[in-house]
Amino acid sequence: MTIAPDAAATVSVAIGQWAVAGSPSKIRTLLGSCVGVVLYDRGARVGGLAHVVLPRSRGAVDHPGKYADTAIPALIADLDRALRGKSAGRLVAKLAGGASMFTLGPSANPTMNIGRSNQEAVEQILADLRIPIIARDLGGETGRHVTLDTATGLVVVRTPGADEKEL
């Protein structure tokens, strides 16, 4: 986990990690089949981004940022610390990534589509936590660059060969 050390910082989130920052900072990552989970408090202008690699930890505790079921609670805990215990009911989510980076044949086991499995796990966890998903750019077959601007809550998604999207 990373907390932006100073104003106007840009924090890069590595695979299986997360970061939290207040305004004015940017948090960015590069995604393929991984899902980027952005949680943001509009009033406080504090946000975080988790780079989720796999849907379930299956009891593993050594890399909490790697799995949806451990990364999202860890991200929320750090946001709650940054918001001094006031994150409940204030966070909204934006999601990006979850691409199918490899061609799978029609007879392939659906669990082999890691991007789709990550999407489903993240959406279920956020639903269970009652955190609304207000925007998403999921699926497809290419990676994405994702950047959260904590000053505005705007998430910019750049996909090779396509126009930039704002979530």
> How many domains would you count in the coordinates?
1
DSSP E strands, number = 11
CATH-defined fold name: 60s Ribosomal Protein L30, Chain: A
Structural classification: alpha/beta
Largest sheet: 6 strands, mixed
Radius of gyration in whole Å, from Cα?
15 Å
* Mean pLDDT over the residues: 91
**Morphology:** globular
What percent strand? Answer: 25-35%
Residues in helices, as a percent range: 10-25%
Which spans of ≥5 residues are poorly predicted at pLDDT below 50?
none
Strand order of the largest sheet: 1-3-6-5-7-8
Distance between the termini: 24 Å
Text of the CATH class:
Alpha Beta
CATH architecture level-2 label: 2-Layer Sandwich
User: What is the overall number of helices?
Assistant: 2
| Secondary-structure element pattern, one letter each | EEEEEEHEHEEEE
